[in-house]
């Protein structure tokens, strides 16, 4: 029984040390599901209205970036205030990726003959992997978290 108790205590200690990372992974899963669903849904809704797949990408990015900002700010990093400054830093990261995405997506679709949906899903992996580092070190670092001042 003491072996199990040791493992449980070790798990609790790891969870306490890596709480933000665990929240980032869980919220990241939510954001990923939202983002992966948003583009195909918008693609199916907007292409019959004669939207180009890159226009659909722009609409999708605005919606997904705003959703991701709100969920990361309040559920992961839990920072207080500076909404505009943090949103601009958050937006900077995603705009860099968006500009790269605008160049890479046509190559994947037009040159590699990939479906826009599959190509965008593949590209999203790079954003997922690198976003924690940017947001934990740049976007949400300027002010104390709510949990630190409560």
Account of the 3D structure:
- The protein is mainly alpha-helical and 150 residues long.
- The protein has one domain.
- It contains six helices and no strands.
- It is elongated, with a radius of gyration of 19 Å.
- The C terminus is likely disordered.
Using brief descriptors, characterize the structure shown:
single chain, 150 residues, mainly alpha, elongated, disordered C terminus
Topology:
Blueprint: H1 2-17, H2 19-46, H3 53-77, H4 83-111, H5 116-139, H6 146-149
Helix pairs in contact: 2-3, 2-5, 3-4, 4-5
Concise overview:
The chain is built from 6 helices and no strands. The protein has 150 residues and is an all-alpha fold.
Instruction: Quote the distance from N terminus to C terminus.
Output: 37 Å
Mean pLDDT: 85
Instruction: Evaluate the radius of gyration.
Output: 19 Å
Q: List how many beta strands DSSP finds.
A: 0
Helix count, per DSSP? 6
What proportion strand? under 5%
What class, by secondary structure content? mainly alpha
What does the largest sheet look like?
none
Count of distinct structural domains: 1
Order of helices and strands: HHHHHH
Name the shape in a single word.
Answer: elongated
- Percentage of helical residues? over 70%
Instruction: Give the low-pLDDT segments.
Output: 144-150
């Amino acid at each position: 029984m003491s072996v199990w108790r040791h493992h449980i205590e070790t798990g609790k200690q790891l969870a306490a040390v890596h709480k933000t990372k665990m929240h980032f992974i869980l919220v990241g899963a939510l954001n990923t599901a939202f983002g992966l669903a948003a583009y195909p849904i918008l693609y199916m809704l907007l292409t019959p209205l004669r939207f180009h797949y890159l226009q659909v990408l722009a609409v999708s990015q605005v919606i997904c970036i705003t959703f991701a900002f709100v969920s990361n700010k309040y559920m992961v990093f839990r920072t207080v205030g500076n909404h505009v400054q943090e949103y601009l830093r958050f937006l900077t990261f995603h705009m860099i990726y968006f500009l790269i995405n605008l160049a890479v997506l046509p190559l994947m679709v037009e040159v590699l003959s990939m479906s826009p949906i599959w190509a965008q899903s593949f590209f999203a992996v790079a954003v997922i992997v690198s976003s924690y580092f940017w947001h934990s070190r740049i976007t949400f670092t300027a002010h104390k978290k709510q949990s630190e001042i409560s």
